[in-house]
Amino acid sequence: MRTAIKSYIKKKLGKHILIGSYNIGLLYFLSKKLTPSTHILMYHSVADQSKAQWVNPHNHVPGDVFEEQMKFLAEKKQVISLDRLVKHIVNQEVIPDDTIVITFDDGYLDNLTVAAPILERYGLTATIFLPTGYIDRGETQWVDQVYTVLKYARNTEYRYCLDFERVFNLSKQRQMLELRRVLNEIMITADLSTRTSVLHDLQQQLEPVAMPPRLTMNWNEVRQILQEYTCFKIGGHSVEHTDLTAISQQLAEKEIIQCRDRIRQELWIVPQFFSFPYGRTSAQLREGVIKAGFKSACGGEGIDQSITHENNVLQLPRVAAPSNMMLFKLLIDPHYRGFWKRLYP
Fold it and tell me: Cα angle vertex 53, ends 52, 55, to 5°?
C-alpha cells in the first residue's frame, strides 16, 4: 500500500512539475539537444458523457477531449499509419519529426460511434486491435464489468475465496483499493471460465444497482466501421485478452492464431499487426507472432516509450493518451520524452 501511495504522489507531483516547466519553457531549454522521436498513442474508450460512467477511468478519454486532441494533431503533427511507421523502421529510414501513430485497443463500440467520425473529419488514420472472443460475444470488457459492480454495489461486504480467504469491507477505501488490485491480478491472467465465475460471484455478493450496457462492438459493427469510414485498419489483440506471458507457449500461440483466423473469417482481411494484451510480451511470443504471419506487434515493458528507426517492429512501445490536454501536448512534444518518462511514468 505504501508503494501505491508513493507512486500516486510521484505522479501528482510529476504532473504539476511537467506542466509548470512546460509553461515557462524550462524543460525545452534543458532538453533541446535531445533527438526528436515519434510516439504511438494508445486509446481504449472515447465514450461520451452518457456512457463514460460505465468505463474504467484508466481506459477512458472523454469524446470532447479526444476531438480536441485530434484537432491538435491534425494541425500541429504528422499522423501516419502504423503500416507506414513499420515501413520506415524496416527500411531503416529516419522517421520525420513530429510524427504520431494512433491506435485503439479492445474494440469499444464508441470507436465506431464517437472516434470514427472525428478521425474522418480531420483526415486521420488509426489501427484498432480486436480481442476476437469479446467481439464474438459482444461482451463488455471484464475491467469495465468489475469497475461497474464495485461502483454501484448495493452491499459493502465481499467474501473472497479463490487463492485465499478474506472478507473485504468496501466502505473502507483501503480495502476497496486492495480488492481492486486482487481482482485485477486474477482477471489479467484468468481464462474465460474463471473470469465468468469471478464476475458472477462478484455480482451475486455485491448486488449492484446497475450494470453496464454493451460497450464492445460485435462483428456487424466492425464491418460497419470499415464500410462507412476509411480511417481504421484492423489488428489482432488475442482472443480472450489474457496475459499471454502467463500461459503456456502452446496456448499463447493458439490465442494468436485463432485471433488471426477469426478476423480473416469475419472481415475477409488478413491482419498484419498485433497488440500484446497489457503490453506483456517475450521473445517466444514474438516468434509466435511471426509464425502466425503478423509483420509487427505493439508491446513491451521496461523499454523506452519513444520510437526511432532502430526499434524492433515486433516490440513497438506505446503511450496511453492522457485525458488532460496540457499533458497530452507535453507528452507528444519530442523535447520532453525523457522527462515525461522519469516524472510521469
Answer: 65
Other C-beta atoms lying within 10 Å of the C-beta of residue 39? 23
Which pLDDT score, from 0 to 100, does residue 294 have? 98
Last residue of a domain, one of 179, 206, 233: 206
Residue 94 structural domain = 33-139+214-334
Long-range contacts of 291-294 (CB under 8 A, 24+ apart): 291/253, 292/253, 292/256, 292/257, 292/260, 293/260, 294/236, 294/256, 294/260
Q: What are the residue ranges in the chain where pLDDT is below 70?
A: 1-37, 301-304, 334-345
Enumerate helices (H) and strands (E) in the chain, giving the number of each: 16, 10
Beta bridge partners of 216: 108
pLDDT at 95: 87
Domain shared by 324 and 189, yes or no: no
Only one residue has cell 506542466, namely 19
The answer to whether residue 11 is domain-embedded is no
Same domain, 201 and 301: no
DSSP letter (8 states) at residue 60: B
